[in-house]
Amino acid sequence: MYSKQEVSTIKQAFWTAFGKYMKPILSADGETISWSNYKTGIPGVSFKLTADNKTASVTILISQADMQLHHLFYEQFELQKNMLEASLEERDWDWQFLVNDEYGKPVSYIRKELEGVSVLRQEDWPALITFFKSRIIALDDYWSSAKYGFEMLL
Per the domain annotation, does 39 fall within a domain? Predict the structure, then answer.
């Protein structure tokens, strides 16, 4: 069993290692990017990479507080679903519209999870990095074209 401080230290080490591994990879637009803290440029739309002691996930999170915009953003992802799936080269992502997050705030998400891995086990890090790398690069490729449809909604 790890203390909170040990868990924090191990997680920080993982994300630092992931960041160093991804640093030489440029975005689809040819720019330097922080892959683990991806900025979409659209308020209320984010790409999240998370890992804990049981799972890892890549999530497109819609947290827009304006419910009209929130609905429009989710509908935009639905309209672009074929383009998203083509970039990701997979179709089995979990789509959830208007669920409450851990704080009771309404969010919508599109998520892919990897079970049976732990960020606390260094031997799982290669699997985690592989899982995150391919998907965040694919999301960036998708977002390079898709973001303009979202900008038009603002």
Answer: yes
Domain count, the chain: 1
The predicted model gives 134-143 an average pLDDT of: 98
pTM of the model: 0.95
**DSSP letters of the chain?**
---HHHHHHHHHHHHHHHHHHHTTPPPTTS----GGG---SSTTEEEEEEE-SSEEEEEEEE--SSHHHHHHHHHHHHHTHHHHHHHHT---PEEEEEEE-TTS-EEEEEEEEEES--TT-GGGHHHHHHHHHHHHHHHHHHHHHHHHHHHTT-
Mean per-residue pLDDT, 23-51: 96
